[in-house]
């Protein structure tokens, strides 16, 4: 009799443990999926800016545009990008995909955008993105990041982009200006 009672209790405990485990597993899988769906910002269809590349330059552009009250859409290929959570906290919609593909740009409503900024860390990818965007919307203002300061003006003329900038070229005058506005260590010692 004791063996039958022990068997019944063991079956009930086993069924309860399996049920609890299954419930926890469902909560983890479905809970995070539903949270992603609810927290996803909507993609605007008109008068927005598309930022392709969510690196250091891209996140600063997003912050500036967002602070100015502009709607922004981000296209980023890396699902583990370190700035994704920051972009999502700013309520900026992020499209996961390759920005040099026409289908991805269409998901971001490139035809209704105010401008597109191709600011990935890869110069060739930035040119591909810009050319694909111009192919979809010829009048779209396109700004391209390019690491080579000598190539930037030539790319701007040849491809008829609004601007092609080199981060080094943009930063150099600011650093040089700091030399003239900040006191030198020698000036501080003399005071």
Q: What's the order of the H and E elements? A: HEHEHEHEHEHEHH
Q: Which secondary-structure class do the elements indicate? A: alpha/beta
Strand content: 5-15%
Low-confidence stretches: none
Compute the gyration radius: what is it? 26 Å
Helix content: 55-70%
Gross geometry: elongated
What average pLDDT do the residues reach? 88
Q: How far do the termini sit from each other?
A: 97 Å
- Say how many strands there are: 6
Query: How would you characterize the largest beta sheet?
Result: 6 strands, parallel
Query: How many alpha or pi helices?
Result: 8
Strand order of the largest sheet: 3-2-1-4-5-6
What does this protein look like?
The protein has 8 helices and 6 strands; from the N terminus they run H-E-H-E-H-E-H-E-H-E-H-E-H-H. It is α/β, with parallel strands linked by helices. Strands 3-2-1-4-5-6 form a 6-stranded parallel β-sheet, sandwiched between helices. The longest helix is centred in the N-terminal third of the chain and has 38 residues, at 2-39.
